[in-house]
């Protein structure tokens, strides 16, 4: 159990620990939290994941009783100077590092309508309050999230199922776009040099259809979660190549999170998706921690059948 959340699945892919957590994303212990965003998040009208993260960024750490790093507009944290202000030899051009320019706590109260930083696939940086569909942008964390150690909010604007007809071909159109959104969100985390990132079910909630006497909503929710899990596993498997090309950090832990069914969540669908993708990836069953075994099993070495490498995991 972490921060009130329960780890019910866990696997290791290429040295990256991928966890499935039942609980609230606000309670996740990660340096970056991904928001299932609309193009303008945060807004005053946001609900669901976006509303919860917005409220946590707006909440005062002092009021919540959280300990440490709570005073002042930057919550008492000492800010790092942008790399451009550091002393260096005139003949040496310092590499741009966005993790030193998007300063956690530097929003000075600007949570709703903040400018986000995002990167095109060619690496070009952009800044805007509005993000296009399938794009992901970074905003500095604030409020109780910052006090808990969260550094960034990554807004991921997934596709809206309701923009498409209720047809079988819609699944082939939407799911690749969800995967693209997740990849871009994880690339943002890499750019910001965080080691842990939490992901909700992008496009798996209010963006889905509802139709009387139809299971279309549950099918779309399942398809969205399958796309998120698959994108996370694929990113972990290919991360070494990606980080070498971009000269960025490396993610060590990816958390996939959803509310339990009793809280109107769909963690049961996420669990089915996790088990299915893990099996497709050829992971040894002993590399996966299950709810009935808890998360207190012993550590051991297992072979990743896809890469042939030995991985450390709970067994």
Structure description:
With 315 residues, this protein is α/β, with parallel strands linked by helices. It is built from six helices and eleven strands. Strands 1-2-9-8-3-7-6-4-5 form a nine-stranded mixed beta sheet, sandwiched between helices. A two-stranded antiparallel sheet has the order 10-11. Strand 4 (116-119) and strand 5 (125-128) form a beta hairpin. It is globular and about 45 Å long. The relative contact order is 0.18. The model is unreliable at 64-94 and 292-301 (pLDDT under 50).
List keywords for this structure.
28% helix, two-stranded antiparallel ribbon, 315 residues, 9-stranded mixed β-sheet
SSE ordering: EEEHHEEEHEHEHEHEE
- Biggest sheet overview: 9 strands, mixed
* CA(first)-CA(last) distance: 17 Å
Oligomer: single chain
Mean pLDDT: 80
Number of helices: 6
**What structural class do the secondary elements suggest?**
alpha/beta
Read across the widest sheet, the strand sequence of neighbours is: 1-2-9-8-3-7-6-4-5
Please bin the fraction of helical residues: 25-40%
Principal-axis shape equals globular
Query: Count the strands?
Result: 11
What are the segments in which pLDDT stays under 50 over at least 5 consecutive residues?
64-94, 292-301
Radius of gyration (Å):
19 Å
Strand content: 15-25%
């Amino acid at each position: 159990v972490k921060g009130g959340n329960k780890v019910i699945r866990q696997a290791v892919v290429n040295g990256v620990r991928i966890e499935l957590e039942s609980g609230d994303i606000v309670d996740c212990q990660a340096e970056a939290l991904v928001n299932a965003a609309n193009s303008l998040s945060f807004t005053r009208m946001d609900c669901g994941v976006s509303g919860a993260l917005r409220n946590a960024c707006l909440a005062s750490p002092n009021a919540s009783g959280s300990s440490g790093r709570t005073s002042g507009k930057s919550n008492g944290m000492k800010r790092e100077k942008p790399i451009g202000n550091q002393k260096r030899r005139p003949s040496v051009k310092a590499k741009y590092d966005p993790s030193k320019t998007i300063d956690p706590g530097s929003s000075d109260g600007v949570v709703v309508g903040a400018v986000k930083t995002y990167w095109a696939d060619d690496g070009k940086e952009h800044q805007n309050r509005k993000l296009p569909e399938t794009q992901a942008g970074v905003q500095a964390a604030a409020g109780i999230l910052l006090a808990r150690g969260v550094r960034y909010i990554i807004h991921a604007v997934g596709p809206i199922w309701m923009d498409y007809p209720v047809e079988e071909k819609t699944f082939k159109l939407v799911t690749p776009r969800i995967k693209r959104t997740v990849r871009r969100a994880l690339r943002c985390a890499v750019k910001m040099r965080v080691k842990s990132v939490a992901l909700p079910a992008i496009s798996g909630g209010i963006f889905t259809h509802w139709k009387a006497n139809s299971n279309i909503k549950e099918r779309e929710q399942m398809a969205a979660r399958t796309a998120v899990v698959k994108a996370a596993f694929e990113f972990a498997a290919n991360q070494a190549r990606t980080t070498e090309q971009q000269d960025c950090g490396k993610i060590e832990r990816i958390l996939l999170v959803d509310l339990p069914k009793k809280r109107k969540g769909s963690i049961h669908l996420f669990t089915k998706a996790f088990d299915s993708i893990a099996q497709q990836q050829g992971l040894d069953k002993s590399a996966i921690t299950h709810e009935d075994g808890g998360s207190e099993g012993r550590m051991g070495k297992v072979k990743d059948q896809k890469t042939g490498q030995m991985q450390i995991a709970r067994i």
